[in-house]
Amino acid sequence: MTEQRAFRPETLTVIAGRPPHDVDEPLNVPVHLASTYVAGGSREYGRFVNPSWTAFEDALGALEGGRCVSFASGIAAIGAVLDLVPVGGVVVAPRHSYTGTVGLLSDLESRGLIRAVYVDIADTTAVAAACKGAALLWIESPTNPALEVADLPAITAAAHAAGARVAVDNTFATPLLQRPLESGADFSVHSATKYIAGHSDVLMGAVITANDDDATAITGRRTLGGAIPSPLDAFLALRGLRTLHVRLERAEQNAQELVRRLDGHPALAEVRYPGFGAIVSIVVAGADDAAAADAADAVVSRTHLWVHATSLGGVESTLERRRRWPAEAPTIPAGLVRLSVGLEHIDDLSADLLDALG
């Protein structure tokens, strides 16, 4: 790990989590299909550890600068962090957050286990004020799907000054564009389903922390809850991670050029892009919410290359009107369509979307 940290992130995506370079040994850690181990060692049972997980965790941990614990899904990883909040604790979170996160917070609050306070994560002063007396500040930056950007160092410092822990959902940015632990966060969380694995064929999550006690606690939540990834998913996620830097570079270039081509389009009320990454949100214009929703749905239905799908971060470009989900925040515009820009040629992507916009 110490030697790996001397390398640039693009190199780490390729080399981290590899087995020793011994003669006649494979370059990659193979898929370990084992539920039971011979007793007397450190493994014992398949719910505790798996070498395929460990290889993935070593690689992503090296990229984020901490110890990684992998999970069966992104929501399982989020749940493990929220499980560390003491009963009755206050969790401060963005008002525009992933609907799964909001669903978990709502469920915990309905059972009297926590109290959730929602803020505009881009309003540093308001976030700092809300952290007084809080147990945890949960950050998305950029937010999903509003794409608001937080001042990570400032609000992390404010939260710590108030006695709160800090967790950052780093799914959209990935560790190549943002390393929350370097800004002081206690936890960096990923839906590895998205950019990390990158091929729309894996469900996995991850939590990374620089604190050994926190890593032990998170591992304990996984062991007790049983939200373990499959060895095959861990193998595929690590294989996807190997090309993250080239995939993200191409997708980001496509996103930036697409934003340029969409600027000022008469069918759009707004184009949202945080300036980095490959997620763009467009707001289709309409006289009212109903008209905007209908117009956005029509755009989604008319694309041929763009795929109507709720996930993101794969090699293929996807789009979705987010308010079609009842759990989406009512402050998200009814006509907002989230675009996950993929690796296709930009001329084909833009032509398909512009045709759909009419």
From TrEMBL:
Keywords associated with the record: Pyridoxal phosphate, Transferase
Organism: Agromyces atrinae
Post-translational modification N6-(pyridoxal phosphate)lysine, affected residues: K194
Listed GO CC annotations: cytoplasm
Cofactor dependency: pyridoxal 5'-phosphate
Enzyme class: lyase
Name of the protein: homocysteine desulfhydrase
Signal peptide positions (record): none
GO molecular function terms attached to this record: cystathionine gamma-lyase activity; cystathionine gamma-synthase activity; homocysteine desulfhydrase activity; methionine gamma-lyase activity; pyridoxal phosphate binding
Family named by the database record: Belongs to the trans-sulfuration enzymes family.
One GO BP annotation of this record: cysteine biosynthetic process via cystathionine
Catalyzed reactions per annotation: L-methionine + H2O = methanethiol + 2-oxobutanoate + NH4(+); L-homocysteine + H2O = 2-oxobutanoate + hydrogen sulfide + NH4(+) + H(+)
Segments passing through the bilayer: none
EC code(s) of this entry: 4.4.1.2
Pfam families linked to this entry: Cys_Met_Meta_PP (PF01053)
